[in-house]
Amino acid sequence: MRAICCQAYGPPELLVFTDVPAPAPAPDEVIIQVKACGVNFPDLLIIQNKYQFKPPLPFSPGGEVAGIVTAAGKEVKLLHPGDRVVALCGWGGFAEKVAVKASRVFPISESLDFVEAASTLYTYGTSYHALKDRATLKAGETLLVLGAAGGVGLAAVELGKLMGAAVIAAASSDSKLAICKAKGADHGINYSTSDLRTEIKEITKDKGVDIVFDPVGGSLAEPALRSLAWRGRYLVVGFASGVIPSFPANLPLLKGAAIVGVFWGSFSEREPAINAKNLNQLVEWIEQDKIKQHIHKVYPLKQAAQALKDLQNRLVVGKAVVQI
Ligand SMILES: NC(=O)c1ccc[n+]([C@@H]2O[C@H](COP(=O)([O-])OP(=O)(O)OC[C@H]3O[C@@H](n4cnc5c(N)ncnc54)[C@H](OP(=O)(O)O)[C@@H]3O)[C@@H](O)[C@H]2O)c1
Predict the structure, then answer these.
(1) For a substitution probing ligand 1, which of 41, 267, 270 has the most ligand atoms within 8 Å of its CB?
(2) What is the pLDDT of residues 62-87, one digit of tens each?
């Protein structure tokens, strides 16, 4: 089968489009004929050997697929050849077929197209878990989203609005902020041209924000933490800037605030029942047209490396998707 292959750790330029043997299912796995694969920041980290999961070389990146089940291992009871599904495979999705544990595969309805389905779980799953389970966001609170036009950022903007928050989107360009506003953001801050703290003070009339959603880290983190209101929650989601921030411990003390970690991948394995409930809620909202992924661009399989390069160069707004 055709696949994008990581044969040596490094940047997207090292990925190879090649033929590899098709997978066979282990007893607890299904084989999925991949129709679409979402492009996520962890794909960039995994090919550079910088992610929590370290598959042995050679492997295909691509952690989130939508497609059709073609075969099922003998222990699999609830999935059958022909089922339309989405799956969290971790890696292996930039290929014509992938083997996935049945517990990580979820059926989808006929009405959900594969490109949309493959671009939904990671971002909305992460952002909903962050806002609902980790920040316990309440209607009427103020939410600041950094990197707000990125994958998890734009999902946080949309979900924050749906959950009743006043949303401040912060991003590096006015064109990115325009898309955040179209998704419901009440305010936009361009952190390339203006000072984050000053803008937040002005927008919140010195009160500060109740929740910071931070998938970027680096130099934005401390000003964002300093902008929390009393009893605020700072969500540590990721470090797209490449820099893991450190904080003076007096900052949360002074605000009675909490710095809260978010790790959706681990949560989905350790707390599958709550995760399944969250995913069902998200699917309901998608089917009711209450949330809709912003698709930046659909790339053919052989251009998957270009999709990762575009993500690395901060060119992707919402989600890039590889179609097979
Ligand atoms: N904790 C979890 O469970 C979880 C789950 C999924 C993802 N994540 C993490 O969340 C982060 C964002 O993921 P994503 O899929 O939303 O990525 P993304 O679509 O690439 O968005 C990241 C955003 O970060 C900003 N950014 C600032 N400096 C950057 C740099 N040097 N390189 C790239 N982007 C930069 C960009 O916005 P501007 O140009 O507007 O600054 C970009 O839109 C990643 O670190 C990822 O690993 C965590």
Answers:
(1) 41
(2) 999 999 999 999 999 999 999 999 99
CA of 82 to the centre of ligand 1 (A): 35
Q: State mean pLDDT over 299-303.
A: 98
Q: How confident is the model at residue 280 (pLDDT cuts 50, 70, 90)?
A: confident
Sequential DSSP letters for 93-114: -SBSEEEEEGGGEEE--TTS-H
Topology of domain 2-120+293-323 in CATH is Quinone Oxidoreductase; Chain A, domain 1 (3.90.180)
Residue 59 DSSP label? B
Q: Give the CA dihedral 94, 95, 100, 105, nearest 10 degrees.
A: 70
CATH number for the region 123-264 comes to: 3.40.50.720
What is residue 129's predicted lDDT score, i.e. its pLDDT?
Answer: 98
CB-defined site of ligand 1, < 6 Å: 40-42, 122, 126, 147, 149-153, 171-172, 176, 215-216, 237-242, 262-265, 311, 314, 316
| Ligand 1 centroid from CA 215, angstroms | 5
